[in-house]
Amino acid sequence: MEDLSFEENSVYWGDYGDLYPTLSASESQSLEKAILARRLGRLQESQRIFEAKLPPPHLLPILALEKANLFSRLGLESSRYSVLDNTLRSQSQWRTRLSGREEELLSITCAEARLLAFGDTRRALRHARRVRDEWTDLAIDGWTDVEFGCAFAYYSIIKTCYLHSNWIDVNTDLYFSPTTSHGPSITIERIIEVLINRQKWHLSLNFIRIQAEFVEDDAKLALYSQFVQSCEAQARNDDMNASLTTLNGRLFLAETMLVELDMTNEAKGPLHDASKQLEGMPWIRADDQQKHMLQKLLIDDHPLLSTDPVPDLSDLAVAVRISGDLLMEIQILGRILRRMNQVDTLHRDDIWDATNDDIFRRYTYIISDLTSRVVLVASQISRLANTIGNTRDQTELSTYLHKLANFEAAYPDFDMPTVQYNLYRGAAVALGELGRKEEAGVFEAKKMEALRNSPPDPSQFYRKYRDKPFDDWAPHLMELILGWIVPETKTGRLSTTQLVRMLAIQTESLQVSDGVSDIDLGLGQPPGVLAERLYGSPTPIECELWEQRLECFETWLWHSPVNVKRFIRHTVLGDLQQARCASVTKYALRIMNDPVHALNENLQLDVLLMKRRENERLLHLRKRLDPNAMETSEHAISGSEWICVCDQANLASSFKAFRTGVIKDSDLQEAQKFFEEAYLSTNKRDLTHRLVTLQQIASCKAQRYKLFGTLAADASLDSFAEYDSVYMEQRMAKSILRGADNLVARAELVARWSFTNHYDFAIGSCMEAIGVAQLRNNYHRHIHQDMSYLPPRPPAPSRDVTTLFTELIEWAQKKKARSVTEALGAEIILSPAMLANTNLDEHALELLQREAEHQLKIDTNEGDMVELNREINTIRREMRSCPGLMDITSLRDGRALNRAQIKSLAQSLGGNVVIVDYVCAQSAFTGLRYQIIPMVYKGGDLVSANIVTQELTLEAVKLWINTYLDDRKPLLTDESALKGLYPLVEAAVKFSNPGDHILLCPTDVLFRIPLHAIELPDGQPWIQRNPIIYTQSLSVLRLCQTTAASLDEACSPRVLAVQALSDRDLARPEAADMAFASRVKARLLQREAVNKQSFVQACTEAELVHFYGHVSYDQPKAMDQYLALRDLESERVTVRNLFELRMRRGAHVNLIGCQSGRSQVGVNDDLFGLSTALMFAGATSIVAALWSIQMDDAATFQEAFYDEVIVQSSSNHGQQEETVKDKRGGDELRKCLDLAVAVQKAVLRTMVDETGKVRAPYHWAGFFLQGCWNKFPTLKGLDQQAERLLCTFAG
């Protein structure tokens, strides 16, 4: 500062000149140099002066206050608070030499510093109001710098609270003191007036910056403009302080125009004046704050989405960093990141990625490690909240929750509602994605509480309609616009002619009074009715008429009304057209789905063209509103250009559009290219964009095959494969979850991202390509059987028939029970015996050991959960690429079986097992509409994969179910109903022999049907011919087989029999007496001994669990279904309870209760119910009932079942033997039950009454077996019972 002089009588650079007499002359000059250095942005120089030439700040209030101002300028609010707090707590002599006003100034400034450092808004507000209420009766004309300092700290607190909460009462809190005998209450305007008269320019400008937060945009600009004019008019030419403050005023004015109001052209004037003024201030160096700020504003004078300024902004960030101005560096880096994030991935390269990562790391480092302003720290966490909703990456979700927990621990008193809203919103989303619904609900409630305490924000104007579906925008838009019309019409700026044209009013007679509700529009209609008239409801008005009305709105909203911000007016203008597009789209959907109009091709085409026209208009309008907005966002899925390309491609759904040449192959080719570029340009973390784009690519390819024959039938399979790869990335991330949360999270992912079920479409495409390859003609001609047009012959599929069949098999397996398979795989335990069956090298064993160590730490909450989850996912990715662990990771990940694995599974089951895997194929592009295909495997080879019949579709089966199975006692009187379903099993019967085991894997509603009871042509039910087993998928069966093989056979399996009926039910004569329990040496729980605790405990100790009691299926949520213990509400065992149960691995469970086998079927054949929960608990085979059963039927079935178990357990019985691993990993033969035969014989005995007459299917067809049937060991020590039974049967 040697180039600047400091005269003793000059105006001080600091704001507390009245306290300078407490300093020596040398200290005053040093302090002035430090303050000037701070105001010029020479922050390191200011720090050196404080440290080398001034006493410790706690010795004098002025030193503490100015040192605190320096810390604030550095963003170190906690250091600022510490300086002020230490000064207040010190025992220095300044307390005896100064008045109490200085202590009050320190106290309220300390409260404001604490607010910015820790965010305790309520505490700071209470302190500020107490100071205001206790203010003495002192006229403002008598104020010193101390009083002005108190007022400034007061208004700083009020401003912060006003921005972050709705706790400010502008009618009282904007007045610094109550009305006094010296005049009215002191307002901020009055304070600024007095300061300007006293020529305290710097403090005046600081008060103006506070006042600007409480006024409208126009008034804000007026404040800065008037201040600059006052400075120039009143200040001396040689007043450097006034010159510097005037320059700052101009820069703040330009910044407000550019950053807040997007007034690029208007800002050129203040920027030019600031540049010119700087030329006359040679004492301001090139690296001072003012020149940096001017340079930033000049660089920022570009459209927001342009990346041209990024290099210059980067250079400026480096220059600012050298000067130590962290807060300005944060601003610059934030602007760089915002611009760089607009760049499509397609146009990014390694240099771009590295640069962006470096900037983001620096930005995060400054906020997290170098500054201590709590709002900045919280905003950095909120940035994560804005991305996790799209990425849904499990590691990122956990990271966010971890950061939020650390933040709340570090700032326990933080209560800024606006910031809390964003933080809690992110937490609710993250916890919901992780399946932690209860915790998500807590944060959802906290989010809403924060919202209620938040102030109205600039976007409040559109919250009324933008939070709603497009369909509901129109009436709220009209209500908003009517509120603007009132003053505009009153002042004559809006003519009645314009109003009539815009609002479609039929009269020129208008009377406008105060208030929206009092507008008399001739017809006296509310906004909703006006919206219907404006847009047309339910049929949209003609395009030409809408164009006229929109033109009128555009003319008015482009520059008027004067009291509404420009960006709001332009947003509403775009939203008017958006609402029009929504109106047309809604109409289009209604027409397409209405059977009356389904065959009206003319109407369909007209609607599609109308929709395209309106979206193109929206695109052109948005380009005009922001000419640069489309430069880098054309591929955004919510962008107008994307929508227009979709409209063009969707024209292919109208056959008339194709036949009349409205849609051509070149159009679809261009759309396909657009979507392929969009996919390449998409951020890999943006799941929504990637999946929607791939769906559009597949659609274009399929339509080009269907209509023009320019692509092969299998062309879309590559897109489906890529789609599934992206989709599976998200599913694999769920592996850090456990139990019910795992299953629920995966199922929700299916519901959210499977769209129109890409698995079914892929299966349909495979079937189409196989037909083309085998028939060598247009397999899909039946689509046009009623039309004169036949499409040209398409190219031959790029895959041969064998490959197509392989892909068909694998797509079918990928679809089946994905959530259950993956979640069960995550639960599987790799026993030493299982590991001994694989050839593991040292690297594989090391990976398994590392994974086990990390999993133990996670299970015991030992260490940083975010880091542990990240590390274990890294280990598991490495395991998946390790050749020696392929089979193990395939099990653990629950991957779908491929063709070779199916063959291996079938061979392990034996040559007498026929597998029937049902799939549903549909494709709007190939004509397959919910067709059922039984894929029959024998010896592991696919021997049949044909559509059942054209008539027996999935929809037809649903109709059959509604007709015959929705009764309380289904199939009681309609005994022949099952005969009509024979086509479902015909192929299986054809390729099997009597006595073969049939393994059925149903799909969709087929899980509701007792397929084993279908009547064969010879009149007998299928189960009489073959033992029949069900499974959710072949992958689930493989997991059950693997788990069942680990069941220890050292002693006889322990049997638990639970009679869970109430005393009232037990008194009924038909109630089962559980006679079998003693014969199989079961532990019997009944009557008072049955409760939730005893049941759960006993289940963990038994290998065979038999439950006889009531089951509640009809619950809104699958997780709320329960086993009823003695009809006591407090003793219910819910599905969620069973997920948490830990049974013996490989256990068998009999659930003899009404609808115990019913499950809710998910999108991809995931079953949610008791059976799935028991599999999670450890069971590998389950017997249950499809519908409500009678007590006597249940008693007959269970007694017959255990009779067969006893017979099979006899040492004289020729049991099947299975090879399993012993504890040491060696092979051993285990004598096992054939549970399928046991169920078959139990069903057959229940099928006939005492006279030998066959009973209705209702009595016996509901019982079925699912899971592994051939691994459960025989019971020991039952030879005598077996002999008695055999004698009884022989007699």
Structural write-up:
Helix 20 runs antiparallel to helix 21, helix 23 packs across helix 25 and helix 34 runs antiparallel to helix 37. The protein is built from 55 helices and 18 strands. The chain has 1291 residues and is α/β, with parallel strands linked by helices. The strands form five sheets. The protein has a six-stranded mixed β-sheet with strand order 7-6-8-12-15-18, with helices on both faces. The protein has a five-stranded mixed β-sheet with strand order 3-2-1-4-5. A three-stranded antiparallel β-sheet has the order 9-10-11. It comes from Cladonia borealis. InterPro entries: CHAT_dom.
Summed up, what is this model?
It comes from Cladonia borealis. With 1291 residues, the protein is of the alpha/beta class. 46% of the residues are buried.
